[in-house]
From TrEMBL:
Keywords: Glycoprotein, Signal, Vacuole. One of its GO terms (cellular component) is vacuole. This is Strictosidine synthase conserved region domain-containing protein. It comes from Gossypium raimondii (Peruvian cotton). Residues 152-236 form the Strictosidine synthase conserved region domain. Belongs to the strictosidine synthase family. Residues 1-19 form the signal peptide. Coiled coil: none annotated. InterPro entries: 6-blade_b-propeller_TolB-like (IPR011042), Strictosidine_synth_cons-reg (IPR018119). It is found in: Vacuole. One of its GO terms (molecular function) is hydrolase activity.
Length: 358
């Protein structure tokens, strides 16, 4: 009996130590993640397999081309995992335009004048020109910019860009998701003073940014809230933020203005089917975060779908295209309209997908 008691005490001590280890040394301090309503919403068109019709551009040449942008001459740019900025000329030839020592290049935007604006999740806001690369912003308010995600330039030269998380980097984005706290920001870079300031704080993974046709508002995607917000830049509501579109079927990534004034948003699956329960328990999240293999498991299977939506300037969802099981394209992170075609970037594919809209 005494032996049994000793064993029990030993087991209790072990369990307490395990619990303390998990609570005090966990890399996260989690909150519950509010998942989108699972009942089909009347405002979201049904899933389809339209995206299986895409044409693959630059296949094998482009590793994880997260975002796409087109310049005045119709050249299409993308930044790859190997740090290459590659561009596709109108004649169909790909050019290795610039190389940067980085595997964390994300959102890009073509400025009014030459070059390319690029977000690097390690270095901040960069600008590439034929002459080389300049770091436009690496700090804000004395702190390093850790996870710059996407940028857009206004006609006055100001650059609005997102910071997905001030706490975790690109390679730890799953921890940020498990923590489910608002570590995201929108920053503004002023070219006349070269100063960067915080425009918005407390966002749930601030991702894609886009300006409206008249530049009267800025749209920003809050991936972990399954919604996009509208921040007014002009008019009576200037400085105010409101919901643009919400309860999306998955997390919005990059967003782009279309020539007709509507927006194209790529939706990424951040919670794989069957894993929803993980996000409803803080205790479970604490345990998982201590074991990298479990963190991997929570995210396994997220890259198997592709969904893009077209949203009117008033927030109504107009169209939806999917590859529901990622047969041809998967983990599409951006959608851009150029001359009646959609160009799709992806963190998983090794090509840019082209999809005819007409
Ligand atoms: Ca972009
Ligand atoms: Ca992004």
């Amino acid at each position: 009996m005494a032996v049994f008691k000793k064993c029990l005490v030993f087991l209790l001590v072990l369990l307490t130590a395990f619990a303390l280890q998990i609570i005090f040394f966990s890399p996260i301090s989690p909150d519950i993640l509010e998942l989108p309503l699972t009942s089909p919403s009347a405002s979201v068109p049904p899933s389809n397999n339209q995206l299986q019709k895409v044409i693959k551009l630059g296949e094998g040449l482009l590793e994880g081309p997260e975002d796409v942008a087109v310049d005045e001459d119709g050249a299409l740019y993308t930044a790859t995992r190997g740090g290459w900025i590659r561009r596709l000329h109108r004649n169909g030839s790909w050019e290795d335009w610039k190389k940067f020592e980085s595997n964390t290049l994300l959102g890009i935007a073509t400025p009014k004048r030459d070059g390319l604006i690029v977000c690097d999740a390690d270095k901040g806001l960069l600008k590439f020109t034929d002459d080389g690369v300049t770091v436009l912003a690496s700090h804000v308010g004395g702190s390093e910019i850790r996870f710059a995600d996407d940028a857009i330039e206004a006609s006055d030269g100001s650059i609005y860009f997102s910071v997905a998380s001030t706490k975790y980097g690109l390679h730890d984005w799953t921890l940020d998701l498990l923590e489910a706290k608002p570590h995201g920001q929108i920053l503004k870079y002023d070219p006349s003073t070269q100063h960067t300031s915080i425009l918005l704080d407390g966002l749930y993974f601030a991702n894609g940014v886009a300006l409206s046709k008249d530049e009267d508002f800025l749209l920003l995607c809050e991936t972990f809230r399954f919604r996009c917000l509208k921040y007014w830049l002009k008019g009576e509501s200037k400085g105010k933020t409101e919901v643009f579109v919400e309860n999306l079927p998955s997390g919005p990534d990059n967003i782009n203005l279309a020539p007709d004034g509507s927006f194209w948003i790529a939706l990424i699956q951040i919670v794989p089917q069957g894993m929803e329960f993980v996000h409803t328990s803080k205790a479970l999240k604490l345990i998982i975060s201590n074991f990298p293999k479990l963190v991997e498991l929570v995210q396994s299977g997220v890259k198997k779908k592709a969904t893009v939506i077209n949203v009117a300037a008033n927030g109504n969802i107009i169209k939806r295209f999917d590859d529901p099981d990622g047969t041809v394209v998967s983990f599409v992170t951006s959608a851009l309209v150029f001359e009646d075609h959609l160009y799709l970037g992806s963190l998983k594919n090794d090509f840019v997908a082209k999809f005819p809209l007409k």
